[in-house]
Structure formats: structure tokens, C-alpha cells
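User: Round two. Same drill as before: sequence, then structure, for each protein.

Assistant: Same drill it is. First protein:
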Amino acid sequence: MTQVFPENALLSFRKLNPAAVFLPAILFISTASLSQTTIVTDSPYTKGTTVVIPGEKFKRSAYHNFFWGKHYRKEWTTPVRVSNFYIDTAAGGLTPIGESGSRQSRGLRLKGSNGKEYVLRSVDKDFGRAFSDTFQGTFITHVAKDQASIAYPFAAITITPMIAAAGVYHTNPKIIFVPKQGPLGDQYNEKFGDQLYLFEERPDENQEDADYFGNSKNVIGSERLFEHIYEDNDNRVDQKAFARARLFDMVIGDWGRHPDNWRWAKFEEDKSTIYRPIPRDRDQAYTKFDGLWPWIATNVAGAVHLESFNYKMKNVKRFNKPGWPLDRPFLNELTEQDWITIAKDLQASLTDQVIETGIHQLPPELFAISGGKLIAKLKSRRDHLEDYAKRYYAFLSHHVELRGSNEREFFDIKRLDKGQTQINIYKITKENEIKKNPYYSRTFSNSETREIRLNSLDNADVVKVTGPPHGVKVRVVDPAGTDSISIESKARTKLSVGKKFLFDTVHTKKFDFFILLLFSAPEYKVFEDDPMGLFTKTGARTSINMRYKPQPWRTAKYMHTHVLSANYGFLRNAINVGYVGRFGHAVGPFDLLLKTRLDPRGVENYYGPGNETVNAHSTRTFHKTYTSRLYAGVGLSLRMDRHQALDISGFYQNIKVDKTTGHYVAVDHSIDPALFESRPFAGVEAAYHFHKTNNDRFPTAGVDFMLAADYVHNLKETDRSFANLASTLSVYVPLGKYFSIATRAGGAALSGDADFYHLNKIGGAINLRGYERERFSGKTTFYNNNEIRWLTNTKSYLYNGKIGLLAFYDVGRVWQPLEESDKWHEGYGAGLILIPFNKIVLTGTYATSVEGSFIQLKASMFF
């Protein structure tokens, strides 16, 4: 069955990574109680009204507000007088019929004696409820609850006069106080009594006596709307009415317009069924994001559509992001002039008096605080509405989605002069006749539109493309493969036949940009391209990474990715930059790889070749070797399946060793002086990787295997070359519920004439704990790492996730020609494992050996 409701339509806080936003701020969290909501300051039975404080819990110190924002805390903590609400007398008498509400609010559904339904929705929101169970009961949900102060507590009641004047269907919310009362019954009295609520009609089903719902005989939700639209091409959305409603959203700064916040009034007109929008839930109108951490969340951490209500909109496209799933299919026939006309008419309707009347619905105490500023901002946004309309039209026109229905249609695509393309869609009757007048018609221009995506859905439609081979690119999708398609010129026309898609474009972020302090270890993903993996790591470091992933149309797979990284190593004072580009299926099933990395000041240890070299110098810097390195490679990569990958590349490498005075390389006379000059190399490399574990972050069962080989030729001394073969095998075995064993064996063998920096190495955080990094160098190496791990779940206010311990034993050695040695180097120790919120693995280990003791901190497991 074709899915008709967009899978990514319901956007909410669950789309964010809570840890990325809140973890850095843990030291600044106040421990004041956030459990209490409405505070009653006088008797709830005084003259039918009550003085309440909507959110006393939001009263915080200036220190707290600096980090978490002032928001509307003053409005939330100011006493106001509101009317009492008794369900046995309101609206002719109401009866509770069940709880409702979203992931952020509590609600109670009520039914009147006339059969109509109403709803009580809590004024105070709990953003913490939007997070997964992993974060419940922790400081993160505590912070999220506090951030409900971004919302204006009485915003909803100010909207009604303005939206009525704008000519948009609407609810009529009222802010009321619900005292505890018998008619609520034991089931609801304790839970819902003595609280502040928003009371309004529930726009559903028959509303023929409600002119504010257009006197519609049937009101439906967005999910059913999609079903009806795609069932029959006689069912359509009134796009001008919807554009009017969306422009009104921009005036009041309501960014939360996902599909669930809309209802649709049904009307029968001229043998067609027309649906007009009824916006609901104005929780996000006038929202304010200030403070250090909210600023980071809305400007760096990906929640860019969370824009503060101000005198002007900053980014019309991003502000409207939650509304894209509806905007793209239901605003695709309007011209720029349509948008301008609607905007001008809306500006004329929203007079100064209308705006002032709306804001004066606020309690006098709140109007005195912020009423004047809200009026000024609304007037300013109204005055800029024509500009917003043009900008949003330009965005929606760049890529246009056109969708047929499950009925038969004729898509007539005409290429016109001057880069224009006209598309008309006609209904085909059961008698196989094409209707005279199109039910959709629009002319597109190259100057506005880059691509038109035409979906014919499941029936046997007719698609005809005529005219000269220029104009806007048109992508025709025939999911059933049954359409009759006639194309005079295939230029600028793309066909996707026999492919079924969801109706919404699969879309995730093209750009990932992150800065990691101390550790450059983002969430581990198997086979992820890493420019920093081209050479040895730089230890504790700051990493700046940008990942660009242009996405092919209607697929979750990326045809190419570009990863640009820059590292600065604190301990080694080393900087490097790298790039990996992957171009999917460039050569048959193979991806094309482009790789480059520059290390202006790479750092490695070198103690000389052999298994029994001496580390007797008093300073650790003596054995540091500084090199400048350039690597550039091009190759092919085959992703065999989700567990296997094969890479083959050719590369160029240039290495120059710095003859640092007082360091080992400067005093070791066995080192060829020519090594201190720039040396170019060329070679080929191949690697096979198999990875199958039960958990990428903390595996307790599974296998990881790698086999790599390379051949390197010295371009300066052309009679010198070498080959190297390396492999590792890691095995993870569970021992009951809490324990597991992890063991890894690895080694490498080099044959030929290689310089010292190309020798295989063991030591330190790479493969032999308890020793300095690159402690032993030789042509052949072997190492074995063994860990027993214990892990359990734990939960507290500050931490929820896993905590564990590990003990380890490592052993390894190198072989060098002409050296006779039977010595094996051993290291052992123990460590702590933390997996906060099950998002990232943090390990700290203490390792010791005959050469000393070392503490290692890592943002991953050792292996």
C-alpha cells in the first residue's frame, strides 16, 4: 500500500541531540524545584476569578539567566487574575471523556451535551517529555522543563482578533483556571484540578454551526487529508487560503507548524472537494531564545528554525522548516504574484487597531510588561510581509513537487521559449476521455526553478513532453511502471520508472559541522571515511570537521560525500588537515575515492630499529621525530554489504624529516643524511574490512577483521621499494549479562628497502599499552590485546547510562633482520568505562610495564 503521510512530517525536540546541547552546561544548572506549576495566590472562589502565578518555577537568578536565558520569565512569574472554570456549567455542561495532550503538554478532552468536543490543554509545557526514556529523570529533562519559559504564557488568546481579521479559520482559545471540583471525578480531579489551562473547541467532524471553521460539515486531520488528496484528483487544497494562513504564521512568529498542528475543513464546490486550513496550537507564537546555551542550540547544534520573535525574520526558509511537508505539496501552483497579492491583502487586514486589540487581550499585568513591544514587533513583521512572501516563494519554487493521484491523469509538459516550461494536469475519466480544463496549470521559468519533480503515483497515467530541448529540468516518476510516456526530446527530462517512494523527499542534513575538544572521536560508524586515518593520530587534540553529503533525489543513500577535517594535537603540538571525497558508483559498483592530507609538522617517536632498543634518556622529547608529510590518493571502494568493504588506491607521498637539534634522529649516525631532504614516493594500497558486532560503540559479541597491503616505490632513489602486509582480528565474546571478553591480534610484515619512518611500529595507545607510542620499530610486528569488561546500567539525576570496569593484558614485539631477540613486551592495567546517555563511550585506563606507567583518556574503546 502506498504510504501517503510524510514519514518526517512530525518535527519536534526529539530530532535534536540533547547531549550535544545540554552536556556542556551541567555546572550551571540550578537545583530549584520544577515540579509545581500554577500557584494560587488567593481563594479560587472569589467572585468567579482567581489570582494565579502561571509559572513561579521559572523565577531564576541572573547567573542562571545568563546561561539559560531570561526568556519570558517575568511574564510567567507575574500574578494575574483569570476566570474560574466549572465543567458542569461551561458550554452548557461538559463531561470528561479522556486524557489528551502532546509530548510537551497535558490535556483533558471534554464532550458537550450537543455532541461537540472541547479540550483543556495545560498552559505550562514540559519540554522534558519530548525526550526519550534515556533522558527522563536527569538534569537534561530538568533543563528542558525550564526552557518552557521561551513561550509566551498567554500568547494564544491574543491571536483570535488578528486571525479573524486576516480571514483565516481559527479556534477561540481562552485561558482559565480549573479549581478542583466534583464533576471532574476522582479519576481527573487530583491530576487536573487547581491548574491553569487553555480551553478551546476541538475542530473535528461536523462544525456547520461554527462560522470560524467555515461552517464545514466535516473537519479532518492532516493524515486523512493526504489520503483523500491522493485517492481522487477531485480532492484539492485551497492553496491561496493555505498561503494566507502560512503568511499569518510568519507575522506572529509561529515556527511550530508541523502537520499535526493543522485541521482541514471540507467543502463541496463545483463537483470538487476543497479543503481549507484550520491552524491550531499556537504554543510557539512570540517565542524568545536568549541566553548562552539556547543560542548555541539554535545557531550551532542544528535547531536553526528555532528563531526568536523579533522585529524582522532572519531566515524565512529555515524558520518555516517544520512546515515543509505540507508547504511543498500544497503551495505548488501559486505564482509570485499570487503570493504578493495575498501578502498585501493580509497587510491591509492586519491594521494597527487589529494588532493592538489582539495584544490588549492580555491580562493588564502582562500587557504592562511586554504588550507594547509585542505590538511594535507585530507591526514591523506585518510591514515586511511582502518581502517574506517573495523569499518563501523563491525557496519553494527552486525545487517543485507535483503529485498526481491514484486516479488516471494526463500530464502535459510543454517546453516554451525563453527557458519556460508549462505543466498542465488533466483528469482522465473512466470513459478514457481527457477533461477539457486542467485541474492544475503553472508555467515555470529557468530563472526561478531548477527542477520539477512530477510523481504520477500508481495508476496508468499519460505523460507527454513536447517542445524544444531546453527549459527547467523535469523528473518524471512512474512508480508502477505502467504510464504511457511520450517525450519528443529527452534533454532536461529524467525518468524514474518502477521505483516506489514515500511522498515526502527523504532529506537529512547535507552539512555536518562539529568541533570536538580533547578528543576527536565522533560517534563511531563502520567504514566512515576519516582523513585523519591516513597517517598516525595526534593524541589529545581539537578537531574541526565538516561533512558535506549531497543527496540524490528520493533516497536515503548519498551518492557522494566530502569530509574535510583539521586537527591540532595538544600533547605533540602538531597540526594536520585532510580531505576524503567519495563518489558513489562512479565506476560500476565501485565508489571513486579522492584522499589527501597535509601534516606540516607531524610527530612520531623513534627509538631506533629493533626489539630491544633502550629508552634511557631523561626527557621524553629526545625521541620525538618531526616530519612534514603530504599524501594524495585516488582509488576505488566497493561496499559489498553492510559488513564488508574493499578499497584499492594509488597514491603519492612526500616526506621530509626535520633534523631537530638534540633529538635522536640528529645524533644517530646510522640515519642517512639524505632523509633530511624531501623524499617523494608513489604506491598502491588495498584493504579489506569485515565488521559485524552487536554494538559499534561497545561491542560485546562479534568480529572485526582487517587485511591491508601496500607497495611503495621511492621516486628519488628509483632502485628502492618495499611491500607491506598488515592485518588485525578482534573477537568479542559475552560472558553472561554483565561480563565480556575482547581480544585482538595484529601484526605486519615488510619486505624490501624502507626508510625508518616506514617501518612497522608498536607501542602506546595504538596497540601496546604501558609503553610510549611507537616504542618499537621493525620490519615485522605482532601484538595481542586482551580485555575483560564489566558493564552495568546506572541512573541518577546527573548521569544515566552505563558504567563499567575493565582489566587488560597486552603483549607484543618486533623483528628486525640480524637481530637476535626472544623478548616479549608486556603491559597490563585497569580502567573505567562511561557511556553517558548511551551516546558516547568514554574510557580512562591506567597501564603499567617495566618502562613506566601511563594514564590514557579516550572517547572510544581501545578496540
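Second protein:
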Amino acid sequence: MICRKCGAPAPGVSLAGDAQAVVAAPGNGAASRTGSTTGSTSGATASRGTASGRTSGMTTSSSTVLRSTTVRRQKLGFGLVDLPAPVVAGDDRFVALRVAVRDPDIVIQKLMKRGLKCGNCGKPVKRIAGFCPDCTQPYDYTPLPTGSLIDEDPARRGTGTRAVAGFLGAGAMGAVYAAWNFMSPPTPQQLAQLDAIASGADPASIGAADLTGRAEVVKVVLNATNKAQAAAALAEMQSATRVEHPGMARLYQYFVGHTAGGAVNCMAMEFVGGEMLASMREHNGGALPLEQAIALLLPVADLLNYLHASGMTLTDIKGDNAIFSPSGTKVVDAGGLHQIGKGGLFQVAPLYAAPEIRRTGPTPQTDIFALFQTLGELSLTGFGVTLGPDNPVPPIADEPIFRNGTLGLVARKLFARGLALDQKQRFGAGRAAAAAEASEQMMGVLRQLSADPRAPRAFESALFGADIGEAIGSRFASPDHRALPSLRPNAQDPGYGIIAGAEAIPPDSRAFFFTQAAANTPDSVELPLAAISACITAAGTDAAQLADAVQRLDERTRQRVAAEDKEFRELLAERESRGARIRDEDRVFNASYDWREDWFRGRIALALGRSAEPRAAFERVDDAVPGELAPKLAVAMACEQAGDLDTAAQWYGHVSRTDPAYKTASFGRVRCLIRAPGRSLDGLQQAAGVLQALQSGGDRVAIHELGAELLLAAVPLVDGVAAQSSSAATPNLFGTAMTEKDLRFGAEREYQRCCTFAASRPELADYIRRSGRARPRTLF
């Protein structure tokens, strides 16, 4: 519904300025987000070529401060990717004053060029002050005079402490100023010194180097015509001053300021120097590399995790509201802070709004959607052109970064999960914290994108254990599910200590042990999963034991779905008792997806020798956790078992390139290169290179066994190599000349070396037979 008078949507869906919506959340709470400054320059910000470090001083608020427990990753780019150096204009505490515009005529020109909009209905206005021609509400964007004390009550002279130093920018609902907080009413001499510094004078030359106070950014909220909404907004703003996190500009204080037009809500924030993320894309001449974009947004994901744990969301996430500074990325607009579950108004840009936000209000899942829309804003070529909230993830053919082999598929899976139109398919849809899960997977994808074979790194996953051992993954003639990493239990689970202490229990007895422990620890989620995993591992390829594992898994799924259904019915009944409006589609129960169940089903199908089923299950797991390597190793095994050796070799290579500690992947790649139907000398040389790299720490039996198979696989290529060779020297493979005689003698030696490591007489006899078959025919 559209108002015929002002052109705004009906109450609860009113647009407010620069593609910015102030929307009503479901519930009966008071309005909570009117009058927040928005727009391309909103926040404590400096444009390109300006900078400041974190200003000194303590908060003036006496409320308790919520301190972040997040361990800050100090190095920009996290040691994985090079980021552009933050553009700075200096590191002294007066930078904010120097970058501000002081000439009111220039300020007005900038405002008019940018385009002003009515803070009430969002329609354009053509004068700096007056009445909106659409809704008749008064507005006034007249810049505050420099030197004026924004926080001084005209009725109480001598009480102000914040002096306006100049103009920084404006949004649809307010203006942003650089100010100096003297901490106490300033003297005329101090005001004169401040004016001189802001005009370019050297503080030392005028005796003001030790001028008391600090630089701040003051956001002045204009045109807040609804007093009830403004009061509610101010109350929630005060609660936001308790937030302290390295990923957000420090909120010093919310206060009532005074202008020629009357009292206004104001917010004093830390000045952050650097470059807005949206500007970084513009100055790059197009989309940033995805690895850079992820590194820039990881601090924002950490901030969201902290806010969600504190009961708040940050609905207004976008490139214009975050700055890349020398200390990392910081969100500089707190106007989107909203209490989870609280009704009222909230601030969101339509392009970044999750499809369900008008129905559910701000939730951690709506924040995840906005976060990944911002990631798309920085890195996708079609963002804002062909892509929007209704179709946020482009087809592979339409986006260059998605066409980069396995890395492109990983990138697309990350976007598909973060931007799923169904909130239950986004990060955090299950029991995991949304932002924590998103951050973990973003970091995992960043590691894959930035992997450098010349400087390999090993990483520890929070979800999967390490490679279980080179021998298990390499000595089997075909892929084996027992070579896959095990799931890492949640350390917060009541059964974690029992699982961690079970190493001394024989593998065949662990399933029974975990089952008994689960019966005595009903609150544990991990113990039933550990019992299923132990049952599958102990079964090997035994169909009867694997059938028992299937029964356990089906029972676990049934219990989980029943518990979710019960919780859903109870919540539905509670909403009905409050008289809440419930749509028909909201009465339909849909169980959540637990990728761990697919992980076990894939392992069982792999053990039973099935072809398509394990790959489908493992690919669903990979869709859910694209930052993890273990599912990709599982996909490679499934492809190898199904005979798709080319795809298997690609994923094996992807895993081993990202983390060389996955020796199982390296051996798997060698197997695929050797056994490929259309194998070439180039592929065999690649396999030889991998085997030679593994000799320093790989399983000796596997190296010798695959080395023999490699040399024998090259025998049919000898004639072709000899015909193509233009030099007198004979080509070499795995330290052996490319002649049939040398290759066969080399294979014989490799099998003989395997005999040294034989674990049983039958195994020794097998190596002796294979050695004899490999030996070239001679006179003896």
C-alpha cells in the first residue's frame, strides 16, 4: 500500500532515504530505529586519502561495557592474502579535523550535488531547507557552523564540550561532522586553537600540541518528526554504547544536541581513518578478488558473532558502512543495531535485505544474508546490475570467479549457503551460531583460494580431525571410508570428555561404549554420533555391521526430527496464545538439515561399494560446509570408486594443494593419474613428482607399491616417447630411464622393497609374485 500524499509505503514499511528502508519488525515493541543517519558517508569515516588511528580517551558513558572475547587476528589479510595498504592521511590525533570541510558554501554544493531526500517520506527535495513538496514535513540540512557547541543547551550556557570542526558527509536522515570533545566546557582560547588546527595550522606552532580532549565523529539525526519513535530510538541508542569490539567504531555517547532548528538526537563515535569498502571496489576499477573481499569482511563476521551472543543484530550491513583502516575493517554505522526479538522499526537497505525480514524481523540469519550480499558487492561483477535480493547467486557461466575449476565451485558454494533464499539453509540454521559458522567457513574458503604450493600451510579444522594416517589411505587398492577424517566433537557437549577419553578402548568396543554412555547422558548430542561413527569404522566393509550402523543413524534422525517438531509446535502454540498473526505457511513444520547424517550415509555407501550414492551424499555435505577439506576428500574418493578418475584427481589435487598434511589426498591423486584410461606421460610425470615429494614423510610401503605401478603404467608409452624424443638422452621417470627393460627392473625393485614391510606371510607372498610378474624377460 502506498500513501497518496507522501508516496511512502504503508506504516511498517516506510522508505527513508538513499535506498534505505526503515521497516517495522513483528511484535508490539516501540519503534526502535527512526532518525538514524544513513547514506554513503554515514559513520565515523574519512574518504580516500584520509586517516586516523583509534583516538584516545575513555567513554563518557557510565554503563557497563560489553567487551569482546574474540581473539583478534592482528595481521591484515590473516597472513593468507595481500590487501591494499589502507589509505591514510596521517597518524596524529587531529586528522579528523583536517579532513573535514569547513566552508559552508562548499558543503551546500556537495549536498545539493549528492541529492537530498526528505527524512519522512524519502522523496527528493531541491532546497537545503524548507518543506517537503510531497508530504509537507519540514526539513533542514543547513550545515552547522564551525566552532559551535553541538551539545550545549541554549537555556544553559557554558555546558557544551563538543565543538564542530567541519562537515564530513550526510545521509538521507542526518549529517556527519568532525568534532572535538574537550571533555569540559572549552575556553575561547581553546576554541581559537581548534579553529586554527582545523584550518591547517601546526598544533606545535600555536602551542596546542597538547590540546585536551579527542577527535570524534558526531552524527546528527535530522527530521525526526515522530517524538515517540525518536524517544524509543534514543533509548536503544543508549544501550548500544555498551558495545565494544575491534570490528566496530567505538560508540562514545548518544546525546541530545541543539541546532538552530531545535533539539536533535546525536551520536558521538570514534573517528576511523581509511577507505570505505564500497570505494575500494570503485578504485579497483571493478570487483575485488574474492580472497581479498573475504579477508576484508572476516572482522565483520566476528563482530556479528559477538553482537548475536549479546542479543543484538546489525541489520544495516553494506560496503558504505564499513571502513578498511590500518587496524583492520571496522563497521562505522551503528544505526542498524537492533535487539533480537524486539518489535518496532529497524534499518535495512533493500538490496541487502533477506527475503523474510519483513515477516521475521532482524535475526542472525538476516544478518548473514546482508553479510554475504556485501561480499557479493565487493567481489561479484553482476552485483546490483543483474543480481539482487531475489536472485543473489549468479549462474556459474555468468560470473568469472565461478569458472575457475574447483576453486570456482568452492566460491559458488560459499555464496549459495550464505545467500540461500530459505533462511533454514543459511549458516546457523541448525544449532551452530550463525556468524561463527559463517566466519569459520569463510576462513576455510580463504585458505583454499590463497593456497600456494611454494609455501604450503597446514590448518586445523573445528569440524573434522586430521588425516587419520598415511598407511590407511594409501595401501588399499581402492578408496576406503576408514581413511576419511573423523568428525571433531563439540567441546561444549556434555559427552565431550567421554569421547576424548575413549582412545584406550579397542575400536571394536567403542560403539557399545558410546551407546551406553549416551543412555546415561541424555543431553549429549555428540555421544550418539560418536557411537555411529565407531560402528561404521569397526564394520569396515561388512554388510551386516554396516546395516546396524544404518539402523542407528535412522534412529538418530528420527529422534532429532521429533524433537524439532515438538519445539516447533510449542512455539506455535505460544504465538497463538499471544494472538500473533500466523500465516498458513508458517504452520508447516520443516525439519532442519544436519550434514553430519549425510556424512555417515556417504561413508556407509562408500563402504558398500555403491557408485552414485556416496558422491551425492558427500557433495551435500560439501555444500553445507564449503570451507572444509574433508568433504572434498570424500567426494574425490566417491568419484574414484565410481570410475570418474579425472574429477577425483582434481579434488585430490585441490585438497593436497591446500593442506599438504592430507597425505591420503596425495596418494589418491597418484592412483588416479596412474590408472586413468587415457593416461599420458605428462600425467605420469605429475604422479612421479607427487611420489617423490612424499618420500620425506609418506608411508614407505605405499610409495614403493605405487612407484612400481607407476613404472609399469609407463611401459606401453615407451615406443611413443622414443619416437617423439629428439635428443640423444632417454627421458626419465621416477628415477628410471624410459625403456621397457629399465622400467620393469625398476618396478621389480619397488616390489622387492615392499617385501621388507610386509605385515604377514600372505602379504609377503603377494609382493614376491608381483615382483616376478614385473621383471623383464631374460635368459635366466
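The radius of gyration is 32 Å.

User: Perfect.
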